């Protein structure tokens, strides 16, 4: 294998590793966002009269 071919193979391998790491980090981040959204929705009770009355003054 020539030095140029070796360099290309190493570059491709490193690029694949970086891409896999980025995908894993993105998946972890999205899971965290989903858990946070679920916690926020579970913690907030709906207001009993929210959206039922509209006060307008002219």
TrEMBL record:
It holds the Pfam family YjfB_motility. InterPro entries: YjfB_motility. It comes from the Bacteria. This is Putative motility protein. It comes from Brevibacillus brevis.
């Amino acid at each position: 294998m020539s030095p140029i071919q070796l360099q290309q193979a190493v570059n491709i391998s490193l690029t694949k590793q970086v891409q896999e790491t980025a995908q894993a980090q993105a998946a972890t981040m999205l899971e965290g966002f989903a858990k946070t959204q679920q916690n926020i929705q579970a913690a907030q009770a709906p207001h009993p009269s929210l959206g039922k009355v509209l006060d307008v003054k002219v």
